[in-house]
Write a structure and sequence with these properties.
single chain; alpha+beta; Alpha-Beta Plaits; 2 domains; five-stranded mixed β-sheet; 12 helices; 5 strands; elongated
Length: 384
């Protein structure tokens, strides 16, 4: 088989294209370090392919050592990035040890063997082990959506092909000499299968990265940046679903509306940054206080709303009173010593066999909140 330089250029071209693609992604969102590491991984892989293809034949051992180091280092970086993206921990020491071992081991095999079959087996097997570790890590990913599953299976299949490919290919050509390597069937199969799986892995990572960006965009539009609570639109959507669900099940549900007392005075006297600090602290307190199945949102400037699932009048009132005391005890650094924050509460309940809408519950809670303001603030009032 004639040596074809274009076949050899296939993999470095693919690797460098995807390295540039991921670098472009990272330049737009530099907080995602895993994207930068993926880019460097593909760049390193491309360098390894180029060294293997264009290295000086007289320095074949050095050329082989450099290219094998690049392949191993690129795989370590890629596995680390996969784990980092999924908020999992990669065994970096183990992976680095395997990578460091692979280079001298492959050099030793080339020196002691009259052909390069053993070295080819070793290179593929070791890279396959590292991809297998990557798949083992990703199996623990708590996210089980279609993209995450596709990424897991792509990495697992990549590991498997590194183990299976040399067995099948070298069964055809049992004695490959170094100077004949690029004229062999194995070399052609290696290039095309490596290109295929490089593209598959890259496409899976691009899809996963794009989903990460979209999730952040959705989060940015769904949550208030100051308090970390849901914005009015998202809160209302969730609240309506909860009310409908509890009405169908004849289950109790309570709505609590609270408003920071004298908030305009805080802004006017101590400045808007101080007012922002009050809102931020209150948002943190609400997130710490509500249960997993409850919903809390910032529904106005200094107005917040909480939906308590499966909660009757008495339990909701106890919750509101407890929250009122926590707010009053809250320490706000921007306020003078002795100045306390307080909030007024209006609460209503959806009782069994009651088909109240969210708007109707809002109206009732707002009347109760107005009554709390009239009664001197810093108190809880229950609507009818």
């Amino acid at each position: 088989m004639k040596d074809n330089i274009f076949i050899g250029l296939l993999n470095p071209m693919i690797a460098l294209i995807f390295a540039s693609t991921f670098l472009m992604f990272w330049s737009r969102d530099k907080e995602r370090t895993y994207i930068f590491v993926i880019a460097i991984s593909y760049l390193t892989m491309g360098i390894g392919f180029l060294v293997s293809l264009f290295g000086v034949d007289e320095w074949i051992l050095l050329r082989s050592a450099i290219s094998n180091f690049c392949y191993a280092a690129a795989t370590v970086m890629l596995v680390w990035a996969l784990a980092k993206r999924a908020n999992l921990t990669a065994p970096v020491i183990l992976l680095s040890t395997i990578a460091a071992f692979s280079v001298p081991f492959n050099t030793w095999l080339k020196i002691t063997s009259d052909n390069i079959n053993a070295s080819l087996y070793a290179t593929n097997f070791i890279i396959g082990i590292m991809f297998g570790i990557g798949a083992w890590i990703l199996r623990k990913n708590p996210n089980k959506n279609m993209i995450e599953r596709a990424l897991f299976w792509t990495i697992l299949l990549t590991a498997i092909q590194f183990w299976v490919r040399p067995i099948i290919s070298l069964a055809i050509e049992t004695n490959i000499q170094p100077d004949e390597y690029r004229q062999t069937t194995y070399w052609v199969i290696l290039n095309f299968t490596t290109a295929l799986f490089s593209v598959l892995v890259a496409l899976a990572l691009i899809a996963a990265s794009a989903r990460d960006v979209m999730a952040d965009v959705i989060k940015d539009t769904s949550f208030d940046h100051l308090t970390g609570l849901k914005v009015r639109r998202i809160f209302d959507e969730d609240a309506r679903k909860m009310i409908t669900d509890h009405s169908k099940r004849n289950a109790p549900l309570s709505l609590i509306l609270l408003d920071v007392d004298h908030f305009k005075e805080i802004n006017d006297t101590h400045g808007h940054p101080c007012g922002d600090q009050v809102l931020s602290l209150l948002g943190k307190l609400l997130k710490q206080t509500v249960r997993e199945n409850d919903v809390a949102g910032r529904v106005g400037g200094e107005e917040f709303c909480i939906i308590l699932s499966h909660t009757d009048d008495e339990t909701a009132k106890k919750f509101a009173e407890s929250l009122r005391l926590k707010i009053h005890r809250m320490k706000v650094d921007c306020l003078p010593a002795g100045n306390k924050i307080s909030a007024s509460f209006g609460m209503v309940s959806l009782k069994p066999n009651n088909n109240s809408s969210l708007d109707e519950m809002y109206a009732r809670a707002d009347k109760a909140l107005y009554q709390a303001k009239q009664d001197g603030r810093n108190c809880v009032r229950i609507g009818q």
